[in-house]
From TrEMBL:
<dbReference type="Pfam" id="PF00459">
    <property type="entry name" value="Inositol_P"/>
</dbReference>
<feature type="binding site">
    <location>
        <position position="224"/>
    </location>
    <ligand>
        <name>Mg(2+)</name>
    </ligand>
</feature>
<dbReference type="InterPro" id="IPR020550">
    <property type="entry name" value="Inositol_monophosphatase_CS"/>
</dbReference>
<dbReference type="InterPro" id="IPR006239">
    <property type="entry name" value="DPNP"/>
</dbReference>
<dbReference type="InterPro" id="IPR020583">
    <property type="entry name" value="Inositol_monoP_metal-BS"/>
</dbReference>
<dbReference type="GO" id="GO:0046854">
    <property type="term" value="P:phosphatidylinositol phosphate biosynthetic process"/>
</dbReference>
<feature type="binding site">
    <location>
        <position position="157"/>
    </location>
    <ligand>
        <name>Mg(2+)</name>
    </ligand>
</feature>
<keyword id="KW-0479">Metal-binding</keyword>
<protein>
    <recommendedName>
        <fullName>3'(2'),5'-bisphosphate nucleotidase</fullName>
        <ecNumber>3.1.3.7</ecNumber>
    </recommendedName>
</protein>
<dbReference type="InterPro" id="IPR000760">
    <property type="entry name" value="Inositol_monophosphatase-like"/>
</dbReference>
<dbReference type="InterPro" id="IPR051090">
    <property type="entry name" value="Inositol_monoP_superfamily"/>
</dbReference>
<keyword id="KW-0378">Hydrolase</keyword>
<dbReference type="GO" id="GO:0008441">
    <property type="term" value="F:3'(2'),5'-bisphosphate nucleotidase activity"/>
</dbReference>
<keyword id="KW-0460">Magnesium</keyword>
<feature type="binding site">
    <location>
        <position position="227"/>
    </location>
    <ligand>
        <name>Mg(2+)</name>
    </ligand>
</feature>
<comment type="similarity">
    <text>Belongs to the inositol monophosphatase superfamily.</text>
</comment>
<feature type="binding site">
    <location>
        <position position="398"/>
    </location>
    <ligand>
        <name>Mg(2+)</name>
    </ligand>
</feature>
Length: 461
């Protein structure tokens, strides 16, 4: 939502009354992550078809918004957003990510409660679940429906080949079922769903459409359907990340973080503690229990956060959005730095040395996925560092949405040499100097960049 969106703010006056989550000196306990793979998923195709039918009927009886009402709402949003070039893209992208978060929550719930027969491995052995393909198909379908297939180009993590193999039939039907289950809810989110259930070929087509190669010209969406797969299958943090890239520049980013805890201190605990604590603590506002969707457009100087949408209601834009801002802490001794959970994804020993030389004193906050970017943008932590092993090439979909949201929230994101990340070279962040540094403030960022070289010389990376 851009800064000139005053009429929307007036429509939601409580937005102005919200206080921003600010930083304080909360101590973080050392992180403990117990990796337990959770099980999976049952099929109730018949019931799902029935549900689709019932919802379609309800829609006809105007318990759901008619397309003209949706169109009016969209026009209102678009006109309220004034001259913002990306208002429609933002509207659709946020709602699509909201839908994807809802899908992921259901699938993660099933993983937690059932047996583990449907967590699949990609060629690179990373676990991939039905959620990855289902989110990709859903977002691809929504974007294509909203903007027209010919106008939408998507670069996304999952390829269609492994899902098209004859021995993937069971998996494909689970994906089709999950996608339909999600798309039937589209009217709740203020979007148009399909007129009839999608078949396997429709779903494969939607996934396969995400075959953009990116590059320096034109515009394309970069999508990580489930970022932080390990966190997802472990019942912990993960994110849905969608960004629009135009002529090599990220112009819009949306980051869904379905398990982002109500209290930032809980970020360092395994998700199962959140579930226990949520049951014990009465929530003052059901919509802000846990989870959020963050978003920003380039040059707006603002980043926003919505609660996850409850599917039993109609999403009324801007859905209780509040502005977010990075932390004002610039004293390294008070700053919290985030890094990946797995040391195979980022050298913990290198960041420990760097942190020490900069004067960081707190324990690192190890969190799965782009939720780390969300923590910086929300002001819940001050620094994010990732130093992958030499030879690993960072992918653009793992950083695009998070980067723009931090920048518009007032922060700085560069590589370890202090240069901007380059999203114009296709799938990879080509030319990345050693690692990624994101900070709430320029002062902390400068200190870290200055210390990188010395720490690098002493390290074995
Ligand atoms: N070897 C290696 N080094 C660095 N990065 C890698 C590596 N392998 C994968 N990836 C990418 O990192 C994504 C996971 O990053 P995270 O920050 O979530 O790491 S962690 O799971 O918390 O350890 C992960 O995202 P997902 O695949 O969506 O989980 C990958 O895109």
């Amino acid at each position: 939502m851009p800064s000139n969106c005053t009429s929307l703010v007036f429509r939601a006056p409580h937005v102005l009354g919200q206080t921003r989550i600010t930083n304080n000196t909360n101590k973080l306990t050392p992180t403990i992550h117990v990796g337990t793979c959770f099980p999976w998923y049952g099929k109730k195709t018949h019931q799902k078809k029935k549900l689709f039918h019932i919802v379609s009927q309800l829609k006809c009886r105007q318990n759901y918004p008619s397309s003209s009402v949706m169109e009016d709402e969209r026009n209102l949003v678009v006109s309220s957003l004034g001259p913002d070039k990306y208002s429609k893209e933002l509207d659709v992208a946020v709602k699509a990510v909201q839908m994807a978060c809802s899908l992921c929550q259901k699938v993660q719930g099933s993983l937690i409660s059932k047996t583990n027969s449907q967590i699949h491995s990609k060629d690179d052995n990373s676990p991939v679940t039905v959620a990855d393909w289902s989110v990709q198909a859903t977002i691809s379908w929504i974007l294509s429906k909203s903007f027209g297939c010919r106008n939408v180009s998507i670069l996304a993590e999952e390829d269609v080949e492994s899902l098209s193999k004859p021995d993937s039939k069971g998996l494909l039907s689970a994906v089709v079922e999950t996608v339909n289950d999600c798309l039937v809810q589209a009217p709740h989110f203020g979007l148009q769903g399909p007129e009839k259930l999608l078949g396997s070929s429709d779903v494969l087509e939607a996934i396969g459409r995400c075959n953009s190669e990116g590059g320096p010209t034109g515009s394309f969406w970069a999508l990580d359907p489930v970022d932080g797969t390990l966190g997802f299958v472990r019942g912990d943090q993960y994110a849905v990340a969608l960004a629009l890239i135009e002529d090599g520049e990220v112009v819009l980013g949306v980051l869904g973080c379905p398990n982002y805890p109500k209290k930032k201190e809980w970020l360092s605990y395994h998700h199962r503690y959140h579930r226990i604590i949520s049951k014990l603590t009465p929530t003052t506002s059901e919509s802000w229990d846990k989870g959020c969707v963050l978003y920003a457009t380039k040059g707006s100087g603002k980043a926003w956060m919505q609660p996850l949408h409850q599917t039993n209601k109609l999403l009324a834009w801007p859905n209780s959005a509040i502005p977010i801002r990075v932390s004002a802490i610039d004293d390294p001794a008070l700053a919290t730095f985030c890094e990946p959970v797995e040391k195979s994804n980022s050298s913990h020993s290198f960041t420990a040395g760097l942190a020490h030389s900069v004067g960081l004193r707190k324990q690192p906050l190890r969190v799965y996925s782009m939720v780390k970017y969300a923590a910086i943008a929300r002001g819940d932590a001050e620094i994010f560092m990732k130093f992958a092993r030499t030879g690993y090439k960072e992918k653009i979909w793992d950083h695009a949405a998070g980067m723009i949201i931090i920048q518009e929230a007032g922060g700085v994101v560069t590589d370890a040499g202090g240069s901007p990340l380059d999203f114009s070279k296709g799938t990879f962040l080509e030319g990345l100097d050693r690692g990624i540094i994101a900070c709430g403030g320029a002062k902390l960022h400068e200190r870290i960049i200055k210390s990188v070289d010395a720490s690098w010389k002493c390290s074995s990376l």
